[in-house]
Amino acid sequence: MSDATVVYEERGAVALVTLNRPEALNSFTRKMHHDLWAALDQAEANPAVRALVITGAGRGFCAGADLAEFDFEPGPDLVQRADPGPVIDQAFNPTARRLQGLRMPTIAAVNGVAAGAGASLAMCCDIAIAATGASFIQAFSKIGLVPDAGGSWLLVERLGLARAMALAMTGDKLSATQAKEWGMIWDVADDCLGNSLNMASRLAAMPTRALVATRALLRDACTRTLSQHLDVERDTQSALGKTHDYIEGVMAFREKRPARFKGE
Predict the structure, then answer these.
(1) Cβ–Cβ contacts within 10 Å for residue 235, how many?
(2) Per-residue pLDDT, 2
(3) Number of H helices, E strands in the chain
């Protein structure tokens, strides 16, 4: 694999993004965030790309932040220099927002350990499929911090408060099998990348705008009352009712033939 910190390739209608710092378990540097944003830009710029898979090179998915980038050299202003706030604000939060706002479905192929913000990265994707030997670790409490990159929100959403609280406080490792049973991820597979690419190909052939609208409705449901949400559903359906894929889907159903969706 190349020396790039993020490798981008297209496989038909699917973009494959590989975090590529295997010697550091694909932990994030600032450069790696920028390289990831460039890869996401490339995927979004190509209308033929209608689903995206993120995975890691080597034996890990992502170990969160590379602590070697923080300045812990003893001396004046140590507290200010070691402050994690700026890198969260300038790098991790924009990455989480970009993944949640992509115009296409996203799948995390969790090939190995996903620790700290790496676990958050996987949960930021719409679907996660983990390798049999993968694991998820909320490592923050071990260094005196709290889950970030959306972790404290996503953990509660996926697992409920009791399980999220214990995982975040103890920093205990969660196996892929347990993560599936608890609802953190969709599935576990020996070939998680192959399964993820197959899932992405399936989603890429579906009505993309409807899938992304579904993502928005489900993720925002907890912010509204049922009555408010009914109105948002109505407005979303009305907007999608003006798309090619809605007309094509209904016509295909009536004509008893496979639909030919364009993502429009």
Answers:
(1) 10
(2) 58
(3) 12, 10
State which amino acid sits at residue 76.
Answer: P
Q: How far apart are CA 217 and CA 201, in angstroms?
A: 23
For 133-169, how does the pLDDT look when each residue is reduced to its tens digit (9 = 90+)? 999 999 899 888 899 999 999 999 999 999 999 999 9
- Report the alpha-carbon distance of residue 203 to residue 127 in Å, rounded: 11
Question: 178: burial class by Cβ within 10 Å (0-12, 13-18, 19+)?
Answer: middle
DSSP secondary structure letter of residue 29: P
Structure tokens at 51: 């689903």
Separation CA 19–CA 64 (nearest Å): 11
- In this structure, which amino acid lies at residue 3? D
CA angle 153, 222, 180 (to 5 degrees): 55
135, 161, 223 from 226: Cα distances, Å: 36, 21, 10
Q: Give the helix/strand (H/E) hosting 246.
A: helix 244-255
Q: Classify the C-alpha dihedral 49-51-56-62 as positive or negative.
A: positive
* Partners of residue 187 on adjacent β-strands: 129
* pTM: predicted TM-score of the whole model, two decimal places: 0.91
Q: Is 55 left (phi over 0), alpha (psi -120 to 50) or beta?
A: beta
Write down the H helix ranges in 101-191: 117-124, 151-159, 161-170, 176-182
Rounded CA separation 225/232 (Å):
11
